Amino acid sequence: MYGVIRIRLDFSYRGTDFAGWATQPGLRTVEGVLDDALTTVLRVPAPRVTVAGRTDSGVHSRGQVAHLDLDPQVWARVAGRPGEARRTPAQALLSRLNGVLPGDLRVRAVSEAPPGFEARFGALLRRYTFRIADAPELHDPLTRDWVLWTRRGLDVGAMHAALQPLLGVRDFAAFCRPRPGATTIRHLQEFSWERPSQGPDAGLVVARIQADAFCHNMVRALVGASLAVGEGRQDIDWPAQVLALGERDPRAGVIDAHGLVLEEVLYPPDAELALRAEQIRARRMDEHVWVPGEP
Q1: Less CB within 10 Å around the terminal CB: N or C of the chain?
Q2: C-alpha dihedral over 5, 6, 7, 13, to 10 degrees?
């Protein structure tokens, strides 16, 4: 886009008191709070913010990314008047935004985006984690906002084995809330379950999930299917059977969102940004489905 400067924002939020990302009348959302802060700091109507991935109500983020386009004069004015403390516009915007944002939404970095950068379509992958406490001694009230509590002990090995056949470029219609005209084909690169023995997650059941993108409710439905296996309600091969049928199964319920954290969004090298965004804008087709180990 000519005549504007594209700005990248890297930010984090505690999703507990947000009704998701997207602005909704009468509700407190991440986008709405960020728009208000941008309006206050820039002293112009809030520019359109494009986010790497919309998160649902209650979902947290350590590594969300967005971009916005600013008039060069507005961008230059952010740094302050001549003679004031010497700061770049990026440094000034970072400081001023965090000066007006609430404590559960923090901007970690502001930068001028390289040519071709597009926060949503340019991303190579999104990485999430999901945490579960499956024993009374792990039900810590201080971590309750980002750890799902369950009363039944989980078979972590079975949960991990059950999700491995789902890796690859697959149609995840059985685990997505359908949206008119939207594809449900995604490249699921990792979905692992483990119980760490050390560190802050010691004893918890932790999922690490990575894909090029996720359709609506996909991660939470896959966690629901994992729990059905981990609790012994379904066999290890059941999630793959559900995927093959291509239809939602009520036994793979969508799990509460508060255990889910967007950890990171990764992008290709600067020289490949524009091509990546162009490719991902194109609709995925059924013939592109690929499974690891197959030609």
Answers
A1: C
A2: 150
56 is catalytic: yes
Residue type, 221: A
Catalytic residue among 35, 56, 134, 171: 56
Token pair recorded at residue 256:
């509460």
Tally of CB atoms within 10 A around 78? 23
pLDDT in tens, 164-207: 999 999 999 999 987 777 788 999 999 999 999 999 999 999 99
Q: 58 with 15: CB under 8 angstroms?
A: yes
Residue 152 pLDDT > 50, yes or no? Answer: yes
191: which 2 tokens?
């979905």
Separation of alpha carbons 27 and 18, rounded Å: 8
Assigned token pair, 231: 């609790």
Q: What would the two tokens of residue 230 be? A: 């981990």
pLDDT digits (tens, 9 = 90+) for 41-82: 999 988 899 999 999 999 999 999 999 999 999 999 998 765
Farthest-apart Cα atoms in the chain, separation: 69
Give the integer Cα–Cα distance in Å for 182 and 244.
19
Count of Cβ atoms closer than 10 Å to residue 121 Cβ: 16
Neighbours of 139 (CB within 10 A): 14
CA pair distance 290, 175, nearest whole angstrom:
17
Q: Under a CB-based contact definition with an 8 Å cutoff, are residues 53 and 213 in contact?
A: yes
* CA distance linking residue 58 with residue 150, whole number of Å: 18
- Using DSSP's 3-state secondary structure scheme, residue 104 falls into coil
Q: What is the DSSP letter of 281?
A: H
| Tokens coding 137 | 């001694």
